[in-house]
Amino acid sequence: MDVALVTVGDELLAGDTENTNATWLCRRLTERGVTVTRVLTIPDDRDVIASAVREFSQAFDACVVTGGLGGTPDDVTKAAVADALDRDLVVADDVKAGIVAKAEAYADQYPDLADAYDLDVDFDAQAAVPEDARPLVTDESFGPGFVAGNVYAFPGIPDELYVMFELVVDEFDGEVVSDSLYTPAPEGALNDRLSDVRERFDVSVGSYPGKGRIPTRIKVSGPPAAVDEAMTWLGEHVDVTEPPEGGSGYADRPGAEPESR
Amino acid sequence: MDVALVTVGDELLAGDTENTNATWLCRRLTERGVTVTRVLTIPDDRDVIASAVREFSQAFDACVVTGGLGGTPDDVTKAAVADALDRDLVVADDVKAGIVAKAEAYADQYPDLADAYDLDVDFDAQAAVPEDARPLVTDESFGPGFVAGNVYAFPGIPDELYVMFELVVDEFDGEVVSDSLYTPAPEGALNDRLSDVRERFDVSVGSYPGKGRIPTRIKVSGPPAAVDEAMTWLGEHVDVTEPPEGGSGYADRPGAEPESR
C-alpha cells in the first residue's frame, strides 16, 4: 500500500514548528508495511491544498492530510479536501450535537473566559465534513476529522492526531519490511555490492555513512522473502559488525531508527 | 523571494530520521525575509527527483534540494537535477583534485581501513556537477554541492548542510517579516477580528490555539509596513497578554518559535 502525506500549515513552512507529525505518521505507516511515497508541506491555502490532495489521492492508495481543521479563517483544509473530491461540505447532526456539548463543557470549566469573550462558534461549520465522508470524533479534538474516499484528514495538533489516527490505523497495511546491517567498510568500498544486491533481489537499498570508525549502515526494504534473501546475500559478501553504541546513534543523523520487523 | 525545498531520502519517508534539515532551512530562509512555499520529501528515485525539481524551479524563485549527493548507488540527486535542467553532468578538475586529496587524507588517518577495504571511489562521479553549475566545496563534505540555475543542491547530513549553506546564504533574501501577539481570548471568540485583519491589511494571519488558560497566539506575516499596521490594529481590537511561560512553549506544538524581525 502506497500512501502520501500532506501536512498543512504556514507555521511549518516558517520553521516555527518541527514537523514531528510527518515523522510520526511515516514511522507508524512504515511499521505496518506501508510505503510512504511523498511528504508535502504546503501553506494554509485552499487551492494549493485542493490541488495536492487531488493529485496524491489519484496517484496513490491513500492520501493522509494533517492540519487546518480548526474553525478560524486560516483553517481551510476541510473546504479544500471537498474541492479536491468535487464534493460539498455537509453537517452531520450527531457530530454537531457533540460539538455543542463540548462548547458547553468548556464554558462550565472556564466561566470567566466564557463570560468575558463572545464565543461566536459556527457550529455548522465546525461540524461539517465532505459529503459521504466518515467523521472521526474523539474527546481530544473539538471538531471532527474524516475519511472521504481514500483521503484521511486529521488535526495538526500532535496529541489530537495521535488519538484520532488510532480510530483508523487498521485501514493501513502492506507487505514491506526492512532490515539493516552495519559494516566497518567505508561506504566508498561498497559500491559493487550495493549495486549487486539491488539487481539480484526485489528490494530497495539505502546506505548511510558513518564517519571514521563509526560503521556504515546498509538498510534493505521490500517484500519479506526478498529482504531475507538480500540480507543473507549481504551477510556473505560484506563484513558485518555490531550497530554503533547507543543502537541507533549516528551523531549527525538525528532521530530514532526503529526496524519494521 | 519564494523558495521551495526538496528533501530527498528513503530514510525520511520511513520515519527513521526527523527532517530537521527542512525545519532548519525554513527557519534560516524565513529569518531572511524569504517565503518558503513548499517542502516536499521524496524517495531516492531519479525520475521523481527530476520531476519535482523541474516543477519547483519553474514555479518559484529558487529550489533548494538536500540529500542524495554521495557516491553510492542510492545517491541519484546530481543526475536527477541535471535531468531536470536538461544538462549533462561534467567533471570540474579542481573539484576532483580536492576529492583525491581528501581520499588520501582519509587513508592516512585510517590506514587499517584503507588497507582492509578496496576503496573503489569513482573520483569523476564524485566530482561531477551539472554543466555550467557552480560547485560548492567545503572541508566537511567529500563531494561538492552546487548551484545550477536557480537550483541549490546540498548534502543531507546536517553538519555538512549547515556549513555549505553559509557559502550562498547571501543569495537568499526577501521582504517578508512576521510578528506575534498573545491573547487570553479563546480562538473561537476571534473569528471576526481574524477575518477583518486579513481583509484590511496585506498580510497573512495564523492563529494557534492554547488550551484553557494558555493564551492563543496570533501571528501576522507580510511586508514590514503592513505587518506594523496590522499589529497596531490588532492591539486595539484584541485583548493582549504576555507570551506563555518559557516564551515559545505550547506543550503540544513542539519547536522553537523565533520571530523574524
From TrEMBL, chains A, B:
Highest taxon of source: Archaea
Region ranges (Disordered): 239-261
Gene3D superfamilies with a match to the protein in the record: MoaB/Mog-like domain
This protein's name: Competence/damage-inducible protein A
Coiled-coil segments on the chain, per record: none
Pfam families: FLAD1_M, MoCF_biosynth
Domain MoaB/Mog, residue spans: 4-175
